[in-house]
Amino acid sequence: MASDILLSLVYVGLSNHGVRANQGRQADSVIVLFHAFKGHAGLSDETIRRCQYARNLLLQNRVSTIVCSGGLRQGKKGLGAVLMGQWLSDRGVATHNIIIEANSCDTLANIRNSQKLLGRRGYRSALVVSSALHLRRLSYLLSKETVSRDVTLYMAPYPRRPARPEPTWLSDVLQANYEWVSYALYFLLPRTIYNRIIYFTRDCATKTA
After folding, report:
1. Is the pLDDT reported for residue 149 higher than 90?
2. Picking from 11-15, 119-123, 180-184, 198-202, which range would have the lowest pLDDT averaged per residue?
3. How far is CA 74 from CA 37, 79, 83, 88, in A?
4. What angle do CA 139, 143, 146 make, to 5 degrees?
5. Domains of the chain by range and CATH?
6. Can you tell me the distance from the alpha carbon of 19 to that of 29, in angstroms, rounded to the nearest whole number?
7. Gyration radius of the chain's alpha carbons
């Protein structure tokens, strides 16, 4: 147990260092990735941290548009992306600065669908906002999977401080273990089985491209 905690926290530190090259970068847009629901129709703390950072990027004029992506789940009162858009709107972000991508249930579909929406609107670059741990794995996936090159992506993890609610050591340990399991499944399983597990565990409403 102690060794797992130590390894997890070391991995968190390495991930935070490894994906910060794009801090301060500007882009046409930002894609904020849905994390999870809280309760029946609320946003998880992690999703809120991501939304907060996307809003800050817009207020700093580093992007002009926020794409809220993901959260297609069965049995939920509302779509994750729609709830994120509402969260941003309630905090002063104009609706014309928000694009909703509500047809995806996994990270790669988030990216592919968001790129399609941005490309149709003439955007050519996007920051991708999530946790450093998540973006480290996403960077690897993008190096192995086929995605559009029309919209250039830059990983942009939210700063741990002043993120609110601030991540805890326990949330770091849990997320690190989740990422390790995801890596293992991706490496070991055929892609069709891997996708079925993702759709089942996330209670996806439908399969996405």
Report:
1. no
2. 11-15
3. 12, 9, 15, 23
4. 115
5. 2-201 (3.40.50.620)
6. 18
7. 16
